[in-house]
Design a protein that fits this description.
The chain is mostly beta strands. Helices cover 0% and strands 55% of the residues. Strands 2, 4, 5, 6, 9, 10 and 11 form a seven-stranded mixed sheet that branches. The chain has a four-stranded antiparallel sheet with strand order 1-3-8-7, with no helix packed on it. Strand 9 and strand 10 form a beta hairpin.
């Protein structure tokens, strides 16, 4: 079983920055992919960014150049740096981890961007 605990969400003005953290209960080097998803009210959950155990990253087009995902294997933590935030970035952000055929989710952290 993998437990994921997110933190770092909050209220920020447009143009501001936040850093989200996702602490895992296991060694993250054992996880194939770690990712961040977001879900706004009335919308489907969608991929924001992902990073493989080899360090390859992938981003949604809407966040390229503004968000950055990174992993700290020593701390068993994955980060999502959110810069140049826009009101449309407001959502609950969820951490996700995949190991073999199993996917694990955190409880989510709210990000609200005011205009």
């Amino acid at each position: 079983q993998v437990q994921l605990v997110e933190s770092g969400g909050g209220l920020v003005q447009a143009g501001g920055s936040l850093r989200l953290s996702c602490a895992a209960s296991v060694t993250i080097s054992s996880l194939n992919i770690m990712a961040w998803y977001c879900q706004a009210p009335g919308k489907q959950r969608e991929l924001v960014a992902s990073v493989t155990k080899d360090g390859k990253t992938n981003y949604a087009d809407s966040v390229k150049g503004r968000f950055s995902i990174s992993r700290d294997n020593a701390m068993n933590t994955v980060y999502l740096q959110l810069n140049s935030l826009k009101p449309e970035d407001s959502a609950v952000y969820y951490c996700n981890a995949k190991r073999l055929l199993t996917s694990y989710w955190g409880q989510g952290t709210q990000v609200t961007v005011s205009s």
